[in-house]
Amino acid sequence: MATDTMPFQTPQVPLKDIGGPLPSTPIPEDADHSTIASRAVEQLSNLQPLAMLHDAMWRDQVALTGTMRTFHSSRTISLAWNELTAANRPQGFSILPKTSQVMRVGPTLHWVEALFAFSLFPEGKRRKDCTGIIRVVPVGDEWKIWVICTLLEDIPDYGTSEKMTPLTPEESLKEREANSISSGKDHFDAVIIGGGQCGLSTASRLKALGVSHVVLDRNEEIGGNWLTRYKSFTLHTSKAASDLPYGGIFKPEDPYFLPSKNIADGYRRFVERWGLNFWTSCVAKKASWDAEKEEWTIEFDYTPPVASGAVNGNGTSVTRRTIYVKHLIFAMGGGGQVPKYADIANQDAFKGEVLHSVNYTTADSWRGKRGVVIGTANSAHDVATDMVNAGLASVTLIQRSRTPVFPESYYHVLFDPFYHEGTDVPLMDRIMESPPLAVTHKFVNVVLNEMASKIPDYFDKLEAAGFAVDREIDLVHCLYERMGGHFYDMGVADKIVNGAIKVKQGTAESFTEKGLRFPDGSELEADVIVYATGFVGNVRYAATEIVGKEIGARLDDFWGVDKEGELRGISKPMVGQKNVWYMGGDTRYARYSSRYLALQIKADIEGETLDVYRKTPGELPN
After folding, report:
1. How, if at all, do strands 502-505 and 403-407 pair?
2. Does residue 312 surpass a pLDDT of 70?
3. Cα 421 from Cα 24, distance rounded (Å)
4. For 40-67, b where at least 16 C-beta lie within 10 A, e where not — what string?
5. Closest residue by Cα to residue 21 from 435, 450, 446, 473
6. Which tens digit of pLDDT belongs to each residue from 162-186?
7. Quick check: 622 pLDDT over 80?
8. Quick one: CATH architecture of 184-336+538-605?
């Protein structure tokens, strides 16, 4: 049960308030990073506060804590580390060959970094193989541990979640037919609600570990969640960074920024290559928990295929079906794509067309009309660009607050060196995703603001055109706290600067017959108005529609960070309800985090549920 200190819904804390400052002492060019890192790792056998900075951080991902935790301060880390290592009996701490290096960002942000490996041998339980990353900084004439990351890699008795052998087309078809909705099978270890990047990543990890699964997806075909988006949609991350686990699902000729069809084609190849159990045209309606059996009963509506003999497909009649599973995974995207609207009165007074971007496909039919888009984040700019290209008489963005602008060139600088043809993606994911988010937040801010300082003219031109720019680009905040709100400029800024897209500042207070009225009395005439105001960001609301209010009240919230800097709810067990999980994030995060979710479920299926460490030793009471 929840208590005052461990509520069902984890409180959200601003990421900017978490963690200490970044290091600020230069490291000499002749520093022996291998020896420095090795000596730091040797300290892990009996980790004491004096070996660390006073504001050091340790992030554990399911290795010792059985969940996702970040511990802060040398005292707390030492207490938790030594308690957990006593119970888990680690052995073999060793630096991985050729991984130690000095990292230098600017004149003073320097640290020694290395990857290490170790294994856990808890009494009476299976061995666990783990890896870690350690970061060390100079303090006077000493070296202190700044950051420790520990990661559960595998439980060898269960196999590995990181490798699978592709099936031949014949093997895949046979396996998928044997597990199809028409097979009559109704018992599975896990059900995944949603078949996007999160659902597919999780399904593949479960299959690699031998966990029976079924993906229920509301769309008529694999990848349908991408095909239903507006026609001009492309990812804002590179093809190399957007692959699913095990890689190679996109073609060499596919573009750098993938359009919807290429994504859907890749996802279909992924399901076929690995023989995943993917049921289309299935809409989850109800999930009931049997505490005695520790089993979920899942009811869903299925639209049968029209063509007889088809494995899956579109149809016209709807049947209610039932399956029984041990684990329920919600992988529906942020809030299940429930749209948010700006609060503007008297919409019925408007004689034109009003829609949300979730229902937008193309601007082609609006040629010659006056278009207005409410919002200034990515979707708003995509819609506005479509309007210009479709020949609308005028296009105006309504900007309600300053917007962080992220030029495309920034992406290439930040990510292309790490994700490209030939990248060891699993290794790079660990390096990029395992550090504490509070550290990543501060680090990315330093890099982005340094980059922004070099191109003031770019931002000045946008400001001169009436677009209010937030020049302190806090990308991590946008991604992990706001779930958006930034403008990733892939050429749209030029249209604002040259006047093809106009900007109206302020918050509209009401619709009029001809458009929108603002508090200062001004009016903006329009024939079509598109809300590009985002989506509800909390999956708990969509999940509650399925599990009911009683269980929904016991689910954790989704996204945003807790007081440790950990994402809320993602890939970790909940306090209030067993055997229910969230999976979320972009493809890179889904690819990485799905490993931990699958390992936790596999352990439970095998009857050895991972022990979850929820204490924070040394923490002062509130």
Report:
1. unpaired
2. no
3. 34
4. bbebbeebebebbbeebbbbbbbbbbbb
5. 446
6. 999 999 999 999 999 999 999 999 9
7. no
8. 3-Layer(bba) Sandwich (3.50)
Cα separation, 40 vs 128, whole angstroms: 22
pLDDT digits (tens, 9 = 90+) for 45-55: 999 999 999 99
Tokens at residue 485, please?
Answer: 């709100």
The position carrying tokens 């995060």 is 589
Render pLDDT for 458-476 as a digit per residue (tens, 0 to 9): 999 999 999 999 988 899 9
Q: Which fold would CATH assign to domain 339-531?
A: FAD/NAD(P)-binding domain (3.50.50)
Q: What's the DSSP call for residue 123?
A: T
CATH topology of domain 31-154: Nuclear Transport Factor 2; Chain: A, (3.10.450)
pLDDT, tens digit, for every residue of 503-521? 999 999 999 999 999 999 9
Long-range contacts of 180-185 (CB under 8 A, 24+ apart): 180/277, 180/279, 180/311, 180/312, 181/279, 181/282, 181/302, 181/312, 181/321, 182/311
Q: How does the average pLDDT of the chain come out, rounded?
A: 94
Break the chain into its structural domains and give their ranges.
31-154, 184-336+538-605, 339-531
Cβ neighbours for 161, distance < 8 A, ≥ 6 positions apart = 154, 205, 208, 209, 595, 598, 599, 602
> Are residues 370 and 387 in contact, defined by beta-carbon separation less than 8 angstroms?
no
| Fold agreement (31-154, 339-531) | no
- Identify which of 504, 443, 91, 425 has the alpha carbon closest to the alpha carbon of residue 239: 425
Give the mean model confidence (pLDDT) for residues 250-273.
98
What DSSP state is assigned to residue 566? P
pLDDT in tens, 191-213: 999 999 999 999 999 999 999 99
Report the C-alpha gap between 204 and 213 in whole angstroms: 9
